[in-house]
Amino acid sequence: MEFSTTEARDTVYGRIRFSEVDVVSFLSKLFGQKDDAVAQAANDTETVRRITRELDLLDDDEARYLAAFAFVLARVANSDMEISEDENRRMEEVVRDIGGLTEAQSVLVVQIAKSQQLLKGGTENYLVTREFNKVSDRDQKERLLHCLFEVSAADDSISLVEESEVRKIATELKFDHREFSAIRSQYNAKRSILK
Fold first, then answer.
1. Architecture of domain 59-194 in this structure
2. Dihedrals φ, ψ of 158, to 5°?
3. Of 4, 54, 58, 192, whose CB is crowded by the most CB atoms within 10 A?
4. pLDDT above 90 as % of the chain
């Protein structure tokens, strides 16, 4: 294999260590992708790094709140075993509004939350909701419940499974049935059980 002058390499302990661009370039050439794809992958990597650095500037408490908030949104969106494009877009909008983030940052936060939900959802659901309960006040918890219904309704219908998951979360956040019902009633037009 020949290396161009733009491909960085150095020898460490007798091995060649490649930069991420080299690996992407190699795999792209191997699978027959054009150089534009290589450049795009390198730019995407730098974009993700830049967004991550920006998110690192958040206060620890704010980051913890936002991470838990996004995870619980993904919990409800995935409760029916599918996160629709509409639900995904709504989660990004909610996270952007709640966190005061840029669009790119909210996309990254939602993607991470969805990935964590898919990987660890069953074991983490209660733990993350309990953490959210600790780091939020009553108004923030109520806002979360509204956002959960909004995400569930993003595809124009709140399924019984989604509604049941929101109910579990409300209980974990110490809402009684009357409080939960008052919030839920604002979304009656979207509830599949009432259609």
1. Orthogonal Bundle (1.10)
2. -95, 110
3. 58
4. 55
